[in-house]
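Re: [ENG-882] Designed sequences occasionally contain unexpected residues at chain ends

Forwarding the minimal case from QA. Structure tokens:
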């Protein structure tokens, strides 16, 4: 059994063929797709966060709205770039959205990926400390956020406050019990997966990672998961961790599917430089008739090792088509693989 969710990048642009032409379209259709996914029995609705882009840049209002319009489905991110985040305000927003959703948030965070502008986090008012990188800054923001999400008091109260305070040091409010255990780290390497396990975060592994040994993508990703789980056990955490992987998977069951994705049947891993120093491997997409698709997915070692699968969706094709994509996986693929 696996939890199966969708991951939307929330693209919008006034281009021919796009069903998502404005930011309003992107936001409202994401809510509508989450509602449709819940009705279909999908387990999670996740959004990708990018700044300075025609995508979903401010996740917490959207997560809260999805939480208010749904009742069961997990609601998450994949991922929030912590280079851009004030960790205390992050904790306030996360706590409020989680309470609105009834404790269903699953927040993926990370050091982020290459963005639309150079050092975009500087425009948000953040600078790495002397001798640190922007990745160090993201991890420092993360560690502070995890501390305050624990709910422990840390702030000295005013002796003459406007309103009465509870005794002792004050914490960030609103506090949502259990949210600290529902923080995931989006890891692109074996080293950061090990670091995430040490801090007690769940693991999100996407469709790309550092190419660390030249092996196929799904093998490297499975090795990353193995290292993460070993580090979790060594750290002595009491609960079981969760691990997700993301994939683009399309079951070709009608003429629309074949027109959109039939040309990608022979897709393979790709290798490239995502910046001047980082060689990355990009996992293949899967698109085929259901029987063939099932056999291909049986060979994906990382999917087999994960408890959660996030299906990336082509959101610009509209809510109805994306609901069809999800339903096709649940109906024609998941049962044959034992995911349902």
């Amino acid at each position: 059994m696996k939890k199966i969710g969708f991951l939307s990048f929330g693209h919008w642009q006034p281009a021919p063929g796009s069903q998502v032409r404005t930011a309003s379209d992107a936001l409202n259709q994401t809510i509508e797709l989450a509602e449709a996914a819940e009705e279909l029995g999908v387990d999670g609705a996740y959004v990708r966060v990018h700044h300075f882009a025609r995508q979903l840049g401010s996740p917490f209002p959207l997560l809260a709205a999805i939480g208010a319009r749904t009742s069961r489905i997990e609601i998450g991110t994949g991922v929030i770039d912590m280079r851009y985040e004030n960790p205390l305000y992050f904790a306030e927003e996360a706590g409020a959205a989680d309470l609105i959703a009834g404790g269903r948030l699953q927040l993926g965070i990370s050091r982020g990926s290459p963005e639309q502008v150079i050092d975009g986090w500087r425009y948000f008012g953040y600078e790495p400390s002397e001798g640190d990188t922007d990745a160090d800054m993201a991890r420092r923001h993360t560690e502070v956020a995890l501390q305050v999400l624990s709910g422990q008091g840390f702030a000295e109260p005013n002796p003459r406050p406007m309103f009465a305070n509870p005794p002792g040091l004050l914490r960030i409010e609103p506090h949502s019990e259990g949210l600290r255990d529902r923080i995931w780290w989006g890891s692109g390497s074996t080293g950061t997966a090990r670091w995430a396990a040490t801090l007690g975060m769940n693991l999100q592994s996407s469709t790309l990672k550092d190419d660390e040994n030249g092996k196929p993508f799904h093998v490297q990703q499975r090795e990353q998961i193995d290292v993460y789980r070993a580090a979790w056990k060594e750290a002595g955490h009491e609960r079981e961790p969760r691990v997700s992987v993301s994939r683009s998977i399309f079951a070709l069951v009608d003429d629309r599917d074949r027109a959109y994705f039939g040309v990608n049947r022979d897709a393979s891993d790709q290798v490239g430089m995502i910046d001047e120093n980082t060689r990355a491997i990009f996992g293949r997409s899967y698109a085929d008739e259901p029987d063939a698709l099932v056999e291909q997915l049986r060979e994906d070692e990382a999917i087999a090792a994960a408890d959660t699968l996030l299906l990336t969706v082509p959101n610009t094709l509209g809510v109805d088509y994306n609901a069809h994509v999800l339903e096709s996986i649940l109906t024609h693929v998941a049962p044959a693989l034992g995911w349902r």
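QA comment: On inspection the terminal residues look reasonable. The chain has ten helices and 13 strands. Proposing we downgrade this to a documentation issue.
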